[in-house]
Every structure is written in structure tokens, then in C-alpha cells.
């Protein structure tokens, strides 16, 4: 990409010194797997591809082994030990570039793995006329000021506010001098604030929603084998039962099926989509449907189950996996599934963003035995295979 669109030369600092405790787990989040690679590797690769040279990764004092493993094989990466705060860590990174004395430097947080090339282009273009440039996004929600009493104390004008992302881009000598001259009593929120405190102007360029910070455990699907690599295949299974009752609609595989009874329960009670959702979640070790959409939460009452499956598939894709195939078995005495099978395959394929040929829907009775045989309920069993994208 750098060849197609020549950029001014620049260095980069990726801050990966945090302990990442908020996402849970023992490995700091910047070294955990995300979309098939350690989190930190995504943005380091994006910066190297864009031409960053040299590139300094700031790491914790005891993280050298993990960092080297996470960035194995990448050329032009240096490691520097971080400080007590993020600001100290950035300062260490900047000092480590003193001998190189680059014209520009991009300072980035490892917790923002999805770094579009266009953002780097916009930042470097803005540096032509300002010593600093940062990517920002508008605030879309209305804003309330919180009082100490837990009541709304006022409003803020969202039109004048921006959400700030990284990387932040600076003239190297300007940001180094600003960090060295920092006299604030508390830590600055980011490097742009450090530059502004030394009277440097900071241009705002368009950020990108993809640059969002990975913070909470829900963003993370931690898939790694003992060897440290993401497995090529994952398999999950799901099982669900719902009760048949008069007066309910019968939704199966996202299709409304005419019948004298329907399924009752959580959401639209689409037992088939629930089983497939659990199979996808099972394949990536991300809990079950109740973890993500608690039946006790009133917002899911009567909800379309397609959104549960869409969410599970999104998590699988974020973990680096694509749908291989789905095999579903519906267990019921009535209605007959055969006439609805084509529509069901199309619906499931659409919800999962996969080919119809990847979706198998089968049905069986239990010879009038048990609750399914007596027509009291419908059971569904699903198996899903995922492969690395
Ligand atoms: Mg269910």
C-alpha cells in the first residue's frame, strides 16, 4: 500500500505496556489472540506496512518474552521498557528515537488493533501544516452531566465534542520537547494534550469506527493452543427445547411456519436459531446464548432470534473464524419440516452470511415417544464447524 501512495517518512511508537486487567485473564490483553493474531501484532503490522521506520514497541518490564513471541518475524521492531504511567511509557519511546531523530512520529495504543491505512494518510497529510494531528469521531449520543447525587446536573453540547482515537501524529522534535517540558500535576489524557500544553496546535482529522479500543472481555474471544497458534478448525454444538402452546407463533430457522401451536419462551422462541447460536458460541468458547442475551432482561422479550445468531457469528469472525458448515436436526412430531426446508436454509444462510450449501436442515420424530412425541415441545440440535478465515 505504501508503494501505491507514497507517504512522508515517519517513525512509530506502539504503547503495549499496560497490564490489561479489565478484560480478565492472566495474559495482558495486548498479547492475547484477536482475529487469529496477538492483539499488538495487528497495529504493528499495519504501521510497518504503511512504512513506519523505526517502530518502537513500549512493553512492561517483564514482558520481553511475550512481546518477542507476539511480534516474531517482523523486521524493524525495537522494544523499549515502559514507565509507571502511559505518559512515562510514551516518553521512554520518544527518548529511544532520539538518535534516529525522525521528522514525524505516530503514537498508537496496542489496544486499537484495526488501524486503517487511510487514517495514517490523513494524519501525515495534516502534519504538513501543524505540529500535531489526531483522529476524532463525532459524539452521536446526547450527553448528560452527572451530579454527585446521582441525578442529572446539566447537559453538554455534543456538537462541540469529539471522541479522540490513536494513532496521534506529531512532529518528532515538537512532541519530544513537549513531553520533556511537561509540568502538569497529573497525567495528561493523551499526547495531544501534552502538545497543546506546550502551545502546539493539533489538527483534527476524521477517525474511523474500526479503530475502537478493545476494553472488555466481551470484545475478546481468546482462542489459542498450547503452541500459541490459533487452531485451523473449531467445532461447536448446541441443543435447545421450547414448549409448544396454543396462541403462539411458530418460528423455526427464522421462518414463520403455519401451525395450530407455536413455541413459547425467551424472545420469539426460535428453538432452531437458539441451538445454532449456542453451537457458534460453543465453537469459540464464548459462553452460551443466556450469557449474551439473559432471559431475565426485558429487552429480549419477543425479540427476533436472528439477532442472537448474527451476534454470535460476529464474535466468531472477530476471533478470526469463518463459518464452515452448519448441521441442524429438528425433533418434532408436527409440523412437517420438509416443505419449509428450502426457505429455512435460505434464511439461516442469510443470517449467518454464508452459502446455502453450507447449511443442512434435517428433521426427525421420536416415534410419538417423550415430550416431542406427544407434541408438547420441539427440540433442536445443531453442530457448527468454523475454519480460520
Ligand atoms: Mg431457547
Summary, kept brief:
The chain has helices at residues 39-50, 64-70, 86-96, 117-126, 172-180, 191-197, 271-283, 289-292, 306-318, 341-352, 370-373, and strands at 11-16, 33-34, 37-38, 55-59, 77-81, 104-109, 132-138, 143-146, 152-156, 162-164, 168-171, 202-206, 233-245, 251-252, 255-256, 262-264, 321-331, 359-364, 377-388.
Word description of this protein:
- This protein has 389 residues and is α/β, with parallel strands linked by helices.
- The protein has 2 domains: 11-222, Spore Coat Polysaccharide Biosynthesis Protein SpsA, Chain A, CATH 3.90.550.10; 229-388, 60s Ribosomal Protein L30, Chain: A.
- Helices cover 26% and strands 26% of the residues.
- It has 11 helices and 19 strands.
- The protein has helices at 39-50, 64-70, 86-96, 117-126, 172-180, 191-197, 271-283, 289-292, 306-318, 341-352, 370-373; strands at residues 11-16, 33-34, 37-38, 55-59, 77-81, 104-109, 132-138, 143-146, 152-156, 162-164, 168-171, 202-206, 233-245, 251-252, 255-256, 262-264, 321-331, 359-364, 377-388.
- Strands 1, 4, 5, 6, 7, 10, 11 and 12 form an 8-stranded mixed sheet that branches. A 5-stranded mixed sheet has the order 16-13-19-17-18. It has a two-stranded antiparallel ribbon with strand order 2-3.
- Helix 2 links the parallel strand 4 (55-59) and strand 5 (77-81).
- Helix 3 crosses helix 5 (172-180), helix 5 (172-180) packs across helix 6 and helix 7 (271-283) runs parallel beside helix 9 (306-318).
- It is elongated, with a radius of gyration of 26 Å.
- The model has no long low-confidence stretch (mean pLDDT 91).
- The structure holds magnesium ion (MG).
